[in-house]
Amino acid sequence: MVAGSSPVRVALSAPGENIPLGFFYAPREAIEFLPLMPSPTASDWRDKIPLAKWGFYDLIVIGGPLLLATLALASCCSLGRWLALLPAAAIFQLLWFFRDPPRTPPSDPQLYLSPADGTIAEITPLDHYEFINGPAVRIGIFLSIFNVHINRAPRSGTVVDTNYQPGQYLNALNPESTLKNENMWIGVEDLTGQRYAVRQISGLIARRIVCELTPGASVQGGAKFGMIKFGSRTELIVPAAATVAVRVGDKVQGGLSVLARL
């Protein structure tokens, strides 16, 4: 659970621009007051369903028409029953994307857990990282549309700062995506005073970043704090003194896999 968090913040475009709603785009002004975007809370009924609570609006907007199309085709004729498999398959993929499997993170405070599911795409030493105030290591994780897309805190601590940056939507496998794409940066100080950072980065398909963390919020290692919708990249930046426990190409699970130790 994330303590001290505020209502869910969704990364939006500038006023007057169109923003994505699932696979659709709509004016920002029309979205800011949508009644279907309340802040999920610990007692929310959505927490009892094994689907990402930040995806229920998308499931309604996208899944509703697909369900109607499935029912309409299945009831029209024999050919329609076969055609109904297409929207039915799309519904299954949508539910699969927003799945939220239960996980029990390891409790060792020396571990940096993976902030996302996916494949390790990059491990890059950094000469100096301002937030850490020294050398660091950046570990990049690529998430395909088939991965669980919920982001989790790598380590217990307190959020020092967050920063949303608009940008491009390059393929998350492109090394330039880490510099040019839309992203949400979260800086955390752990219980020992060590600092680390997480970046949620949009991709070619992922164009909606959800993060419910704000400065001052307390997080537990492995706790869910947001997601990136429909394919993306997540980065963990740790001090260079940390021992990296993964290699490029490794498959990892958010809140379970150990990326580094310190």
* CATH topology annotation of the largest domain: Glucose Permease (Domain IIA)
**What's the alpha carbon Rg, rounded to whole Å?**
19 Å
Overall domain count: 2
Summarize the helix and strand pattern as letters.
Answer: EEEHHHHEEEEEHEEEEEEEEE
| Contiguous runs where pLDDT drops below 50 for at least 5 residues | 1-43
Class by alpha and beta content = alpha+beta
Give the class-level CATH name of the largest domain: Mainly Beta
CATH architecture of the largest domain: Distorted Sandwich
Our measurement of the CA-to-CA distance between the termini, rounded to an integer number of angstroms, reads 23 Å
Shape descriptor: elongated
Q: What is the number of helical segments per DSSP (H or I, 4+ residues)? A: 5
- Give the amount of beta strand, in percent: 25-35%
The major pleated sheet works out as: 8 strands, antiparallel
Strand order, sheet with most strands: 12-8-9-10-14-6-5-16
- In helices, the fraction of residues equals 10-25%
Global mean pLDDT: 78
Number of strands: 17
